[in-house]
Amino acid sequence: MDELEQIKLTFFQECDELLADLESGLLAMEAGEGDSETVNAVFRAVHSVKGGAGAFALEALVRYAHVFETLLDDVRSNKIAASPELVRVLLRAADILADQVTAARTGGVPDEAATAAMVGELEGWINGQGGAAAPAPTQESPAGAPSAPTDELGIGFTPMTISIDDFAAEPTAAAPAAPTDELGIGFTPMQLDLAEFDAPAEEAPAGEQAWIITFHPHAALYAKANETALLLRELERLGPIEVSIDDSELVSLEHLDPESAYLSWIVRLTTDVAEEVIRDVFEFVSDDCELTIVREGQEEVAEPAAEAAPVDDVAALIAQINAEPVVAAPAQDEILPTVAAAPVVAAPAPVTPEPVVQAATPAAPAPAAAKAAPPKAAANEPAQPQATIRVDPERIDRLIDLVGELVINQAMLAQRVGEHGFAPSSDIAMGLDELEQLTRGIQDSVMAIRAQPVKSVFQRMPRLVREVANQTGKQVRLVMEGEGTEVDKTVIERLSDPITHMLRNAIDHGLESPEDRVAAGKNGEGTVRLAALHRGGRIVIEVQDDGRGINRGRVRQIAIDKGLISPDAVLTDEETDNLIFLPGFSTAAKVSDISGRGVGMDVVRRSVQALGGRISISSRPGEGSIFTLSLPLTLAVLDGMVIDVAGHTLVVPLTAIIESLRPKSEEIKALGPQGSVLAVRDTYVPLVDVGSVLGFRNDLMPATDGVVLLVENEDGGRAGLVADAIQGQRQVVIKSLESNYRQVDGIAAATILGDGRVALILDVDAVVALRRREPRAPEPILHAAE
Amino acid sequence: MKILTVDDSRTMRDMLRMALVKAGFNVVEAVDGEHGLEVLTANGADVIITDINMPKLDGFGFIEAVREDASYRATPILVLTTESDPAKKDRARRAGATGWIVKPFHPDKLVEAIRRVAA
Question: What is the pLDDT of residues B20-48, one digit of tens each?
Fold first, then answer.
C-alpha cells in the first residue's frame, strides 16, 4: 500500500473518531451540558472531516461538510443560538455526515435526497429561517438567495486530487534543497518553467518585459518574520533583477528605532511572466508594505526620492539587507552589533553604543519560554495523545488460536506427567505448574489485546433511536451506561443485532405515544436506558424503557390463539412476559417494519443462545420493561469445572457455580413425583439430575451418592446440579458444537481435554430449564424460601 | 531544515509529513497549540506550519505565544487555512503569521510557501 493510500485509511479512521466526538458533543449540548468548548469541538470535528476530505478530492463529502460547518461556525460565534430544536437538526445532520463518510469510504452513493433535504434545512438555519431561536436575521434577501452562503464552495475551497507522483517528485530546483545556500541571490538568470506558476501560459505577454517594482516594507512585515531578501530571491526566480536601495528615509543612529523599517527597494525585473505572478510573490506581505509594479517606461509614480544607489554586488546587497534594522533578528544581543556594523548607516553624528542599547533594550521582550511547559519526553518524538499500534485482527486471531492449542497441549502434558507417577513435588511437576501459570498469563494477555469496550457498538445506537423515534412519532431520550465495559471482540461483533432489536422493541412496543404518556401522568418524552455491565463472568446488556409494560392479558391470549400454550396453562408473570420469545409469536397487530423488521424475538433469542447467551424480559404494567441479555465475555476460552456424570465427562462453566456440596439425606426433600429440593442454609433449591436430564441414564441418582453443584442462572435463580463426582477445575478452549456437529439442548459447546477426549460443556440454564419442562407445569418453587 | 507542524488532525499531519519529507525537510509534529509550544521548546524549528482550529490552544494563541518568545520572533510561521477566509487570514497575520497555505494544498505549493519565508 502506498503512503497516500495509508493516509487515506488513517483519514477514515480519524473520521470515525471525529464522528463519535461530534455526536457526543451534540448529545452533551442536547442535555444542556455543552459549553463553548463543546461547541468548538463539534465545529472542529466537522471541519477536520472536511479538511481531510478535500485532500482526497471527496467532493460530495466536502460540499456537505462545508454547509454543516458553516452553520456550526454561526453557532460557535453565537450568531445562532443552540436551541434544542437546532441541536436535534444538528444530530440528524451528523447522521447524514456519517452516511457521507461511509459512502466515501466504500465508494458508494449516499442518499442524495436525504442529503439535499438536510442541506436545505441547514441552509434555512444559516439564513435565519430555521427557527424562532435564530436572532436578528442579517441576510438581506432571506428567501431570495437561500443557497448564497454555501455555493461559494468553488471559491474558497477546491477539492483537489493529489497523486502520489506529486509527492514522489524529487525536490526540484525550486525546492530549498540546499538550506546552506543562505540567500541564494545570484544574478544569473534562471531557467523557469511557466507551468510552475499559477498563471495560464496565454495570460503571459509574449516575450520578455521589464518591470519596475518599488517595495517599501513596513515594520510590521518584519515583525511577522517576513524577509525582504527572500522576496528578492523569489523575484529573481522570475527573471534577472537589478536591485537598488532607497535609504533616504534612514535616520541618524540616535533616532533610529530598531523596530522600524527605513529602507525601500527598487527592483528592475526582466521577465516574461504576467503581472499577477509578480504580485503573487508579495502575497504574504501585501498588507505590510507599499508596493507598486509597473512596466518599465510607464512609471507614473514618482521615482521614490533621491539617488538610489545601484547595487551590483551580491555581498553588498546582502550587507544592505542585513543592515535594515530588523525586528526579526533573533535576539537583542545580535541586533546591536549588526546595526552598529551596518555599512550603509551613513549617520554623520559620532555615536556611542549606549543610545542604541537603550533603544534596543525596551524592545527586547521578556522570554516567553518560561511560560511554556517543560519539554515533554524525548525530543524527536512528538507525542501522540494515545500511543497505539495498529495490528491486523487476523494476526491476533491466529495468536489466540495458537494459545488455545498451547492450553490444550499443556493440559495433555500435565496429564501424562501425572500418569507416569511423578510426585507433585518433583522438578517436572513443579516446572509444569509454572508452565501452566505462564500459559494462563499469556492467554489472559492475548485475550486482553482483543478486548474492546462496548462503546463501539453503543455509539451506533443514538442514531437508531432517533430514527425509530422519528418513524413512530415518539419522543425518546436514550441514556447509555457502562460504555467502557470491555468484552472480547468475538462477542462485540455479535452484540449489535440483539441490541438493535431490543431497542427497536422498547421504543416501538414499550413506549407510549407522547399524548398517551402525558395522559398517564408521565413525561411526554420516554426514556430508554441502555447499559452494559459485568456480572458473574459474563457481560450483561440491559435495555430498559419506562413505557406501558407488557400487556400480559394480550400476550397470553395471543399465545393461546397461536397454540403456543394451552388455554388452562398457569403461568407466572415472568413466564408470561417471556412468551414473546416463543417462535411464531408477534404481538404487533400489523407486523411492524420497525420492531425487528419482521423478525420475531424468537430469532433474536435463538441467535443469542447460539453464542452461549440468554435473553429475557421482565415488565411491570404501567412502569416499563427491561430486556436483559447476557453473553460470555469471550467465545474463545472458559474456566470450567470438570465433572463425571454417568460415565461421561462434562464441563460446567465456573462462572455459574456458587459452591459444591455433598448433601446429607436429611437436607433433601421430595417434591412431587420426580422432583426434590435441597436445603441450603435457609433456602431450598431444586435439584437437577444432570445424568437423567441429558438422557445418560433413566433413573434418578440419589443426590447423596454424588455431589451437588450449586449454580445460579441469569435471573438470579438457583438450582443444584447433581453429578457423580468432581474431577477438578480447568481452563478449556471452547469448540463450537454447532459448527462441528449440531446444537444439542442443554449443551453449550464442546472442548478437548488434556487426554485428548472431547468433553461437552453444559449450558447450565438450559439444563435447569430442561428439567422444568418435563412436567410442563409451572415451575414448582424456584425460591422455596421458608 | 526542521519544520514543526501543528495540527489536531492526524490525516493532515500525515499529509504534511509525507510532502515535507519527500521535499527533503525534517519534520517534528504537535497535536495542538499547547503541545506545539512544548515541542518547539524541546526541539526548536526553522519553520512552523500550524492549523487554526485546534483544541486547548488554537492557532492564533499559538502564534502569539511563539512571537512573544524572543528566540522565535524571526521564525517563519505559516498557517493552514481551509478556505481563503480573509477574516481568519487577517487575524492570523495580526497574531504574527508570516504567510499561509490554503488547504487542500498541493505539495509543490507547500514547498513554494516555505521557500518564500525561509532562507
Answer: 998 889 999 999 999 999 999 888 899 99
φ/ψ region of A286 (left if φ > 0, alpha if ψ in -120 to 50, else beta) reads: alpha
* A156 touches B: beta carbon within 8 Å: yes
The radius of gyration of chain B from alpha carbons, rounded to an integer in Å, stands at 13
Among A150, A133, A140, A26, smallest CA distance to A79 is for A133
Pairing of strands A486-488, A526-535: unpaired
Instruction: Say yes or no: A154 contacts chain B, CB-CB below 8 A.
Output: no
Protein fold of A3-164: Four Helix Bundle (Hemerythrin (Met), subunit A) (1.20.120)
Higher pLDDT, A590 or A699: A699
Pairing relation of β-strands A476-481 and A289-295?
unpaired
Q: Give me the interface pTM, i.e. the ipTM.
A: 0.85
| A634: amino acid identity, one letter | T
Distance from CA of A198 to the nearest CA of B (A): 10
Strand (E) or helix (H) holding A438: helix A427-450
Residue-range definition of the domain harbouring residue B19:
2-103
Task: List all residues 6 or more positions away from A412 whose beta carbon is below 8 Å from its beta carbon.
Answer: A754, A755, A756
A200 pLDDT higher than 70? no
Distances (CA, A) of A210 to A241, A267, A294, A679: 9, 10, 9, 109
**Residue owning grid cell 465545529:** A43
pTM above 0.80, yes or no: no
Compute φ and ψ for A265, nearest 5 degrees. Answer: -130, 135
Convert the pLDDT of each residue in A340-377 to its tens digit: 333 443 444 444 444 333 333 333 344 443 343 344 33
Structure confidence at residue B60 as a pLDDT band (50, 70, 90): very high
**Mean pLDDT across B49-58:** 90
Q: Residues A296-343: pLDDT tens digits?
A: 877 654 444 444 445 555 555 556 555 554 444 444 443 433 343 334
Residue A652 half-sphere exposure toward CB, CA atoms < 13 A: 32
Mark yes or no for CB contact B116/A171 under 8 Å.
no
- Reported as a single tens digit per residue, the pLDDT across A694-723 is 888 887 788 888 899 998 765 557 889 999
Q: What is the pairing mode between strands B77-81 and B47-50? A: parallel
Check which CATH number belongs to the domain holding B35 and give it.
3.40.50.2300
Does B104 sit within 8 Å of A159, measured CB to CB?
Answer: yes
Q: Cβ–Cβ of B30/A182 closer than 8 Å?
A: no
- Asked whether the predicted pLDDT for residue B76 surpasses 90, the reply is yes
C-alpha distances in Å from residue A155, one per residue of A139, A665, A696, B104: 20, 90, 80, 13
Distance (Å) from the C-alpha of residue B97 to the closest C-alpha of chain A?
6
Domain tally, chain B: 1
* Domain pair A3-164 / A454-632, same fold: no
Question: Residue A177 above 70 pLDDT?
Answer: no
Residue B55 counted as domain residue: yes
SS3 A169: coil
Show which of residues 373-402 on chain A sit within 8 Å of chain B, judged by CB atoms.
373-376, 379-380, 382-385
Q: Domain A637-773 belongs to what architecture?
A: Roll (2.30)
Domain boundaries, chain A: 3-164, 194-362, 393-452, 454-632, 637-773
Domain membership of residue B69 (yes or no) is yes
- Is A457 exposed, middle or buried, given 0-12, 13-18 or 19+ CB atoms closer than 10 A? buried
Element (H, E) at A463: helix A461-472
Which residues of chain B does A328 touch, with a Cβ-Cβ cutoff of 8 Å?
73-74
Instruction: Assess if residue B118 is contained within a domain.
Output: no
Percent of chain A with pLDDT over 90: 9
Biggest CA-to-CA distance, chain A: 125
Q: Is A454-632 a domain of CATH 3.30.565.10?
A: yes
Cβ distance of A376 and B68 shorter than 8 Å: no
- Residue A563 predicted with pLDDT over 90: no
